[in-house]
Amino acid sequence: MANAIASSCDVCLVEKRADTGVEGSAIGLPANSVHALKLLGYEFEIKNIARQISHMAWAKSNGDLLSLQELTRIHPLGAQFMAVARRDLHRMLLERAIVQINFRTTINELLLPAASDAPVTVRFSSSVNYGGIESALHDFDLVIGADGMYSTVRDLVHAAVKATGDKAKSAGQPTVAPKPVFRNVRAWRTLVHGKPNWPEHSIYFFSLTSMLMLCPINSDTSGDRYYIYAHEVIPKPDRLTDNESEARFMKIFSEYGGVIPEVITEVKTDELSTLFIESISDIYWGSPTDRVVLLGDAAHGIPPFLQNGAAQAFEDVYTLALLLDKAVSRASSAQLTETCILDEIKKACINYVDARHGRVDFVVRESNPPYPVNESELDAMFKDAKEKGSWSVSQFYKLMNNPTFSFPSDLLS
To answer: How many degrees, rounded to 5, is the angle at CA 150 between CA 144 and CA 152?
Structure first.
Protein backbone atom coordinates (compact mmCIF):
# COMPACT_ATOMS: atom_id res chain seq x y z
CA MET A 1 0.00 0.00 0.00
CA ALA A 2 2.80 2.40 0.91
CA ASN A 3 4.46 1.90 -2.48
CA ALA A 4 1.17 2.28 -4.33
CA ILE A 5 0.49 5.77 -2.95
CA ALA A 6 4.04 7.03 -2.41
CA SER A 7 4.15 8.82 -5.79
CA SER A 8 1.25 11.10 -4.84
CA CYS A 9 1.46 11.23 -1.02
CA ASP A 10 4.05 11.64 1.73
CA VAL A 11 3.98 8.32 3.58
CA CYS A 12 4.93 7.32 7.11
CA LEU A 13 5.14 3.53 7.43
CA VAL A 14 5.37 1.78 10.80
CA GLU A 15 5.76 -1.92 11.59
CA LYS A 16 5.49 -3.44 15.05
CA ARG A 17 7.86 -6.31 14.27
CA ALA A 18 11.64 -6.02 14.34
CA ASP A 19 12.12 -6.94 10.67
CA THR A 20 10.34 -8.06 7.51
CA GLY A 21 10.35 -11.74 8.44
CA VAL A 22 8.08 -14.14 6.55
CA GLU A 23 5.40 -16.33 8.12
CA GLY A 24 3.93 -19.35 6.36
CA SER A 25 5.17 -21.71 3.67
CA ALA A 26 3.44 -20.90 0.38
CA ILE A 27 0.28 -19.35 -0.94
CA GLY A 28 -2.23 -20.07 -3.65
CA LEU A 29 -2.97 -17.08 -5.86
CA PRO A 30 -6.34 -17.40 -7.61
CA ALA A 31 -6.72 -15.59 -10.92
CA ASN A 32 -8.30 -12.52 -9.31
CA SER A 33 -5.23 -12.21 -7.06
CA VAL A 34 -2.88 -12.42 -10.06
CA HIS A 35 -5.02 -9.85 -11.88
CA ALA A 36 -4.79 -7.43 -8.93
CA LEU A 37 -1.00 -7.86 -8.83
CA LYS A 38 -0.90 -7.07 -12.56
CA LEU A 39 -2.86 -3.85 -11.97
CA LEU A 40 -0.38 -2.97 -9.21
CA GLY A 41 2.50 -3.38 -11.67
CA TYR A 42 3.79 -6.84 -10.74
CA GLU A 43 2.69 -8.78 -13.84
CA PHE A 44 6.12 -9.90 -15.00
CA GLU A 45 7.61 -10.38 -11.54
CA ILE A 46 4.87 -12.73 -10.40
CA LYS A 47 5.13 -14.79 -13.58
CA ASN A 48 8.87 -15.21 -12.94
CA ILE A 49 8.53 -16.52 -9.40
CA ALA A 50 5.18 -18.36 -9.35
CA ARG A 51 3.95 -21.57 -10.93
CA GLN A 52 0.76 -21.63 -12.97
CA ILE A 53 -1.89 -24.05 -11.71
CA SER A 54 -3.98 -25.14 -14.69
CA HIS A 55 -6.25 -27.68 -12.96
CA MET A 56 -7.78 -28.37 -9.55
CA ALA A 57 -8.83 -31.83 -8.35
CA TRP A 58 -10.97 -33.06 -5.47
CA ALA A 59 -10.58 -36.57 -4.06
CA LYS A 60 -11.69 -38.70 -1.15
CA SER A 61 -9.16 -39.31 1.59
CA ASN A 62 -8.62 -42.85 0.24
CA GLY A 63 -7.38 -41.33 -3.05
CA ASP A 64 -10.50 -41.89 -5.18
CA LEU A 65 -10.76 -38.98 -7.64
CA LEU A 66 -14.01 -36.99 -7.56
CA SER A 67 -13.34 -34.18 -10.03
CA LEU A 68 -10.57 -32.63 -12.12
CA GLN A 69 -11.39 -29.18 -13.50
CA GLU A 70 -9.59 -26.71 -15.70
CA LEU A 71 -8.84 -23.29 -14.21
CA THR A 72 -7.37 -21.48 -17.22
CA ARG A 73 -10.65 -20.03 -18.55
CA ILE A 74 -12.30 -18.83 -15.38
CA HIS A 75 -11.10 -15.23 -15.26
CA PRO A 76 -12.78 -13.02 -17.88
CA LEU A 77 -9.54 -11.19 -18.72
CA GLY A 78 -7.41 -14.33 -18.94
CA ALA A 79 -5.57 -14.08 -15.62
CA GLN A 80 -4.29 -17.46 -14.43
CA PHE A 81 -4.21 -19.30 -11.10
CA MET A 82 -0.73 -19.52 -9.59
CA ALA A 83 1.06 -20.72 -6.47
CA VAL A 84 4.25 -19.35 -4.94
CA ALA A 85 6.45 -19.69 -1.87
CA ARG A 86 5.60 -16.92 0.58
CA ARG A 87 9.27 -16.01 0.94
CA ASP A 88 9.53 -15.39 -2.81
CA LEU A 89 6.34 -13.32 -2.89
CA HIS A 90 7.51 -11.31 0.10
CA ARG A 91 10.87 -10.66 -1.55
CA MET A 92 9.17 -9.54 -4.76
CA LEU A 93 7.10 -6.95 -2.91
CA LEU A 94 10.02 -5.72 -0.80
CA GLU A 95 12.27 -5.21 -3.81
CA ARG A 96 9.96 -2.40 -4.88
CA ALA A 97 9.94 -0.79 -1.43
CA ILE A 98 10.53 2.96 -1.72
CA VAL A 99 9.29 3.99 1.72
CA GLN A 100 11.40 3.71 4.86
CA ILE A 101 9.91 1.36 7.44
CA ASN A 102 9.90 2.34 11.11
CA PHE A 103 10.32 -1.04 12.80
CA ARG A 104 9.42 -1.92 16.40
CA THR A 105 6.77 0.80 16.34
CA THR A 106 3.08 0.61 17.18
CA ILE A 107 0.25 3.13 17.41
CA ASN A 108 -0.74 3.76 21.02
CA GLU A 109 -3.39 6.43 20.50
CA LEU A 110 -5.51 7.71 17.64
CA LEU A 111 -7.46 10.98 17.82
CA LEU A 112 -10.08 11.58 15.15
CA PRO A 113 -10.37 15.01 13.47
CA ALA A 114 -12.18 17.57 15.63
CA ALA A 115 -13.40 19.32 12.47
CA SER A 116 -13.50 18.66 8.73
CA ASP A 117 -10.28 20.61 8.19
CA ALA A 118 -8.43 19.02 11.13
CA PRO A 119 -5.87 16.19 10.95
CA VAL A 120 -5.92 12.71 12.42
CA THR A 121 -3.49 12.72 15.34
CA VAL A 122 -1.45 9.60 16.07
CA ARG A 123 0.71 8.84 19.09
CA PHE A 124 3.34 6.18 18.41
CA SER A 125 5.11 3.92 20.87
CA SER A 126 8.42 5.59 19.99
CA SER A 127 9.71 8.58 18.05
CA VAL A 128 9.14 8.51 14.29
CA ASN A 129 10.66 10.82 11.70
CA TYR A 130 7.97 12.32 9.49
CA GLY A 131 8.27 15.50 7.48
CA GLY A 132 11.70 16.09 8.99
CA ILE A 133 10.27 16.09 12.52
CA GLU A 134 11.31 13.45 15.04
CA SER A 135 8.46 12.86 17.46
CA ALA A 136 6.12 10.24 18.89
CA LEU A 137 3.15 12.50 18.06
CA HIS A 138 2.25 13.32 14.45
CA ASP A 139 -0.69 14.69 12.49
CA PHE A 140 -1.87 13.02 9.28
CA ASP A 141 -4.45 13.66 6.58
CA LEU A 142 -5.14 9.92 6.34
CA VAL A 143 -4.45 6.81 8.43
CA ILE A 144 -4.55 3.34 6.83
CA GLY A 145 -4.59 0.30 9.08
CA ALA A 146 -3.06 -2.71 7.34
CA ASP A 147 -1.90 -4.42 10.51
CA GLY A 148 -3.49 -7.83 10.15
CA MET A 149 -5.97 -10.04 11.93
CA TYR A 150 -5.03 -8.68 15.38
CA SER A 151 -5.16 -5.05 14.21
CA THR A 152 -4.35 -2.35 16.74
CA VAL A 153 -5.68 0.35 14.43
CA ARG A 154 -9.05 -1.44 14.25
CA ASP A 155 -9.41 -1.38 18.05
CA LEU A 156 -8.26 2.24 18.30
CA VAL A 157 -10.51 3.67 15.60
CA HIS A 158 -13.52 1.78 16.94
CA ALA A 159 -12.87 3.13 20.44
CA ALA A 160 -12.31 6.64 19.08
CA VAL A 161 -15.63 6.64 17.18
CA LYS A 162 -17.50 5.46 20.31
CA ALA A 163 -15.77 8.11 22.40
CA THR A 164 -17.15 10.90 20.20
CA GLY A 165 -20.68 10.09 21.33
CA ASP A 166 -21.82 11.04 17.82
CA LYS A 167 -24.84 8.82 17.07
CA ALA A 168 -24.73 9.54 13.36
CA LYS A 169 -21.07 8.58 13.19
CA SER A 170 -21.67 5.43 15.25
CA ALA A 171 -24.59 4.31 13.09
CA GLY A 172 -23.73 1.09 11.32
CA GLN A 173 -20.65 0.56 13.49
CA PRO A 174 -20.46 -2.76 15.38
CA THR A 175 -21.21 -2.47 19.10
CA VAL A 176 -17.77 -3.85 19.95
CA ALA A 177 -14.60 -3.86 17.87
CA PRO A 178 -14.50 -6.97 15.64
CA LYS A 179 -12.18 -9.68 16.92
CA PRO A 180 -10.65 -12.87 15.48
CA VAL A 181 -13.01 -15.85 15.85
CA PHE A 182 -11.78 -19.45 16.00
CA ARG A 183 -13.10 -21.43 13.02
CA ASN A 184 -12.83 -24.88 14.66
CA VAL A 185 -9.82 -25.81 12.54
CA ARG A 186 -6.23 -26.71 13.42
CA ALA A 187 -4.03 -26.43 10.34
CA TRP A 188 -0.55 -27.46 9.30
CA ARG A 189 1.61 -26.01 6.52
CA THR A 190 4.93 -27.01 5.04
CA LEU A 191 6.94 -27.35 1.82
CA VAL A 192 8.41 -30.59 0.48
CA HIS A 193 10.35 -31.62 -2.60
CA GLY A 194 8.25 -33.67 -4.99
CA LYS A 195 8.59 -36.88 -6.96
CA PRO A 196 8.05 -37.35 -10.72
CA ASN A 197 4.82 -39.27 -10.14
CA TRP A 198 3.18 -36.53 -8.05
CA PRO A 199 0.33 -34.56 -9.70
CA GLU A 200 1.15 -31.40 -11.62
CA HIS A 201 -2.11 -29.78 -10.48
CA SER A 202 -3.47 -28.90 -7.05
CA ILE A 203 -5.50 -31.65 -5.39
CA TYR A 204 -7.66 -31.65 -2.26
CA PHE A 205 -8.25 -34.85 -0.26
CA PHE A 206 -11.26 -34.89 2.09
CA SER A 207 -12.50 -36.95 5.02
CA LEU A 208 -15.29 -36.06 7.44
CA THR A 209 -13.00 -34.33 9.94
CA SER A 210 -9.81 -33.56 8.01
CA MET A 211 -8.46 -32.34 4.67
CA LEU A 212 -5.10 -32.18 2.91
CA MET A 213 -4.18 -30.08 -0.12
CA LEU A 214 -1.11 -30.81 -2.26
CA CYS A 215 -0.09 -28.08 -4.69
CA PRO A 216 3.03 -27.69 -6.87
CA ILE A 217 4.84 -24.34 -6.58
CA ASN A 218 7.93 -22.82 -8.14
CA SER A 219 11.04 -25.01 -8.20
CA ASP A 220 14.33 -24.37 -6.44
CA THR A 221 17.85 -25.69 -7.06
CA SER A 222 16.87 -29.05 -5.57
CA GLY A 223 13.91 -29.58 -7.90
CA ASP A 224 10.14 -29.30 -7.83
CA ARG A 225 8.55 -28.10 -4.62
CA TYR A 226 5.07 -28.78 -3.28
CA TYR A 227 3.01 -26.88 -0.78
CA ILE A 228 1.08 -28.91 1.79
CA TYR A 229 -1.85 -27.39 3.61
CA ALA A 230 -3.72 -29.75 5.92
CA HIS A 231 -6.28 -29.37 8.66
CA GLU A 232 -8.55 -31.14 11.09
CA VAL A 233 -11.85 -29.97 12.55
CA ILE A 234 -11.69 -29.61 16.33
CA PRO A 235 -14.24 -28.28 18.88
CA LYS A 236 -11.88 -25.85 20.62
CA PRO A 237 -8.32 -24.52 20.19
CA ASP A 238 -6.45 -27.04 22.35
CA ARG A 239 -2.77 -26.22 22.60
CA LEU A 240 -0.40 -29.02 21.65
CA THR A 241 3.36 -29.15 22.06
CA ASP A 242 5.38 -29.25 18.84
CA ASN A 243 5.92 -32.99 19.24
CA GLU A 244 2.23 -33.61 19.92
CA SER A 245 1.21 -31.54 16.90
CA GLU A 246 3.64 -33.35 14.61
CA ALA A 247 2.44 -36.72 15.88
CA ARG A 248 -1.15 -35.67 15.34
CA PHE A 249 -0.42 -34.67 11.74
CA MET A 250 1.34 -37.96 11.01
CA LYS A 251 -1.41 -40.05 12.63
CA ILE A 252 -4.21 -38.43 10.62
CA PHE A 253 -2.64 -38.21 7.19
CA SER A 254 -0.60 -41.40 7.13
CA GLU A 255 -4.00 -43.13 6.88
CA TYR A 256 -4.87 -41.27 3.66
CA GLY A 257 -4.60 -43.03 0.30
CA GLY A 258 -3.42 -42.15 -3.19
CA VAL A 259 -0.07 -40.40 -3.30
CA ILE A 260 -0.35 -39.04 0.26
CA PRO A 261 1.53 -41.83 2.12
CA GLU A 262 4.54 -41.10 -0.09
CA VAL A 263 4.11 -37.35 0.40
CA ILE A 264 4.05 -37.75 4.18
CA THR A 265 7.42 -39.48 4.15
CA GLU A 266 8.95 -36.32 2.65
CA VAL A 267 7.66 -34.03 5.41
CA LYS A 268 10.34 -32.70 7.75
CA THR A 269 8.54 -32.33 11.04
CA ASP A 270 10.82 -29.49 12.20
CA GLU A 271 9.57 -27.47 9.18
CA LEU A 272 5.90 -28.19 9.87
CA SER A 273 4.08 -25.13 11.17
CA THR A 274 0.81 -25.32 13.10
CA LEU A 275 -1.88 -22.68 13.44
CA PHE A 276 -5.52 -22.21 14.32
CA ILE A 277 -7.73 -20.89 11.51
CA GLU A 278 -9.54 -17.68 12.44
CA SER A 279 -11.68 -15.06 10.77
CA ILE A 280 -12.84 -11.59 11.81
CA SER A 281 -16.29 -11.52 13.42
CA ASP A 282 -17.47 -8.59 11.26
CA ILE A 283 -16.21 -6.74 8.20
CA TYR A 284 -15.05 -3.38 9.52
CA TRP A 285 -13.61 -0.59 7.37
CA GLY A 286 -12.79 1.87 10.14
CA SER A 287 -14.20 5.40 9.93
CA PRO A 288 -13.92 6.61 6.32
CA THR A 289 -15.61 9.95 7.10
CA ASP A 290 -12.75 10.60 9.56
CA ARG A 291 -10.14 9.52 6.99
CA VAL A 292 -9.19 6.37 8.92
CA VAL A 293 -9.64 3.18 6.90
CA LEU A 294 -8.63 -0.47 7.17
CA LEU A 295 -7.61 -2.97 4.51
CA GLY A 296 -6.71 -6.64 4.20
CA ASP A 297 -6.99 -8.85 7.28
CA ALA A 298 -7.45 -5.79 9.50
CA ALA A 299 -10.77 -5.10 7.76
CA HIS A 300 -11.93 -8.60 6.84
CA GLY A 301 -9.70 -11.44 8.01
CA ILE A 302 -10.70 -14.42 5.87
CA PRO A 303 -10.07 -18.16 6.31
CA PRO A 304 -8.07 -19.81 3.49
CA PHE A 305 -10.87 -22.02 2.16
CA LEU A 306 -11.38 -19.87 -0.97
CA GLN A 307 -7.71 -18.83 -1.16
CA ASN A 308 -8.74 -15.18 -1.15
CA GLY A 309 -7.19 -13.58 1.93
CA ALA A 310 -4.20 -12.09 0.09
CA ALA A 311 -6.28 -11.61 -3.07
CA GLN A 312 -8.75 -9.34 -1.29
CA ALA A 313 -5.90 -7.40 0.32
CA PHE A 314 -4.33 -6.79 -3.11
CA GLU A 315 -7.71 -5.67 -4.46
CA ASP A 316 -8.14 -3.34 -1.45
CA VAL A 317 -4.74 -1.80 -2.13
CA TYR A 318 -5.40 -1.21 -5.83
CA THR A 319 -8.85 0.28 -5.19
CA LEU A 320 -7.79 2.64 -2.41
CA ALA A 321 -4.57 3.70 -4.15
CA LEU A 322 -6.40 4.50 -7.38
CA LEU A 323 -9.11 6.51 -5.62
CA LEU A 324 -6.53 8.44 -3.59
CA ASP A 325 -4.47 9.16 -6.70
CA LYS A 326 -7.56 10.54 -8.44
CA ALA A 327 -8.40 12.63 -5.38
CA VAL A 328 -4.90 14.11 -5.17
CA SER A 329 -4.83 14.78 -8.93
CA ARG A 330 -8.17 16.62 -8.78
CA ALA A 331 -6.98 18.65 -5.81
CA SER A 332 -3.69 19.56 -7.52
CA SER A 333 -5.22 20.52 -10.87
CA ALA A 334 -7.89 22.67 -9.22
CA GLN A 335 -5.45 24.17 -6.70
CA LEU A 336 -7.88 23.44 -3.90
CA THR A 337 -7.60 24.75 -0.35
CA GLU A 338 -6.41 22.41 2.41
CA THR A 339 -9.99 21.92 3.59
CA CYS A 340 -11.13 20.91 0.09
CA ILE A 341 -8.17 18.53 -0.27
CA LEU A 342 -9.14 16.79 2.97
CA ASP A 343 -12.72 16.56 1.70
CA GLU A 344 -11.45 14.87 -1.49
CA ILE A 345 -9.54 12.36 0.64
CA LYS A 346 -12.66 11.71 2.72
CA LYS A 347 -14.67 11.08 -0.46
CA ALA A 348 -11.98 8.67 -1.66
CA CYS A 349 -12.23 6.73 1.62
CA ILE A 350 -16.03 6.56 1.39
CA ASN A 351 -15.89 5.44 -2.25
CA TYR A 352 -13.30 2.81 -1.33
CA VAL A 353 -15.67 1.22 1.17
CA ASP A 354 -18.59 1.44 -1.28
CA ALA A 355 -16.51 -0.15 -4.03
CA ARG A 356 -15.22 -3.01 -1.92
CA HIS A 357 -17.90 -4.01 0.57
CA GLY A 358 -20.21 -6.10 -1.64
CA ARG A 359 -17.39 -8.15 -3.11
CA VAL A 360 -15.64 -8.67 0.22
CA ASP A 361 -18.93 -9.65 1.86
CA PHE A 362 -19.40 -12.40 -0.76
CA VAL A 363 -15.85 -13.68 -0.26
CA VAL A 364 -16.18 -13.69 3.54
CA ARG A 365 -19.44 -15.66 3.39
CA GLU A 366 -18.13 -18.18 0.88
CA SER A 367 -14.84 -18.58 2.76
CA ASN A 368 -16.74 -19.72 5.84
CA PRO A 369 -18.63 -22.75 4.49
CA PRO A 370 -20.37 -25.18 6.86
CA TYR A 371 -18.46 -28.42 7.37
CA PRO A 372 -20.18 -31.77 6.80
CA VAL A 373 -21.28 -32.96 10.24
CA ASN A 374 -21.97 -36.61 9.41
CA GLU A 375 -21.19 -39.24 6.80
CA SER A 376 -24.46 -38.54 4.99
CA GLU A 377 -23.53 -34.89 4.42
CA LEU A 378 -20.02 -35.90 3.39
CA ASP A 379 -21.41 -38.35 0.84
CA ALA A 380 -23.66 -35.61 -0.53
CA MET A 381 -20.64 -33.32 -0.92
CA PHE A 382 -18.75 -36.09 -2.73
CA LYS A 383 -21.76 -36.74 -5.00
CA ASP A 384 -22.00 -33.05 -5.92
CA ALA A 385 -18.26 -32.87 -6.62
CA LYS A 386 -18.41 -35.90 -8.89
CA GLU A 387 -21.50 -34.77 -10.80
CA LYS A 388 -21.11 -30.98 -10.88
CA GLY A 389 -17.48 -30.31 -10.05
CA SER A 390 -15.96 -28.94 -6.88
CA TRP A 391 -17.52 -26.25 -4.70
CA SER A 392 -14.30 -24.21 -4.94
CA VAL A 393 -14.30 -23.90 -8.73
CA SER A 394 -17.99 -22.98 -8.72
CA GLN A 395 -17.33 -20.14 -6.27
CA PHE A 396 -14.31 -18.95 -8.28
CA TYR A 397 -16.59 -18.59 -11.31
CA LYS A 398 -19.05 -16.50 -9.28
CA LEU A 399 -16.35 -14.33 -7.77
CA MET A 400 -14.66 -13.55 -11.07
CA ASN A 401 -17.67 -13.24 -13.37
CA ASN A 402 -20.58 -11.80 -11.36
CA PRO A 403 -21.08 -8.14 -12.41
CA THR A 404 -22.85 -7.38 -9.12
CA PHE A 405 -19.52 -7.21 -7.31
CA SER A 406 -16.98 -6.97 -10.11
CA PHE A 407 -13.40 -5.83 -9.66
CA PRO A 408 -12.36 -3.16 -10.43
CA SER A 409 -15.67 -1.53 -9.59
CA ASP A 410 -17.48 0.99 -11.77
CA LEU A 411 -17.18 3.36 -8.82
CA LEU A 412 -13.51 3.81 -9.72
CA SER A 413 -14.27 5.63 -13.00
So the answer is: 50
